[in-house]
Amino acid sequence: MNFLSTTLLAFSMSTDAFAAALSKGACVRKLRFMVALQTGLLFGVIEATTPVIGWLMGLGASQMVRDWDHWVIFTLLLVLGGRMIRAGLTPPTEEEDCHAGGSHTRWWLLAATALTTSLDAMAVGIGLAFMDVNIWLTALAIGTATTVMATTGMLIGRKVGTLIGRRAEILGGLVLIAIGSLTLFEHLHP
Length: 190
Hints:
Blueprint: H1 3-13, H2 15-26, H3 33-64, H4 69-89, H5 107-128, H6 135-160, H7 163-188
Helix pairs in contact: 1-6, 1-7, 2-6, 2-7, 3-5, 3-6, 4-5, 4-7
């Protein structure tokens, strides 16, 4: 993967964390920068860890499917991108609504949200095991992009709500599908 693909992958992986952070930020009455940064770091560390876990799981399988690995990558990114687009088009649930009650800034709830939003990064990590990538740089890029996006989402969430977050998730899904399609094209047309 080249620098542009890695950057696009990193930011597309961070869009679901951005959307979640927007929603959380919209629910906080007086948000301090340090709270937003801590939230961003929590999302970033978890999002950087999960592709490495997926990559480790995929290493064993990559040797067995070397002849059709491009189809595995394409399928994983197509499914994940489609899931992100569907999530972006789905109206917010009552649980995502600020007025559903409870504090949405509890750390255990944020950690659970971060883990949930990073499961797609684990699946991408599995796909990365089939490619010639430096997983450590890719994971660092994903974690950094997620930290920046989640911190920003928290900070602007109060002003813009979840509308932008859902659109960002749709864009992230489209980028994943484009990366998967490009990978397939490059393997089929060397």
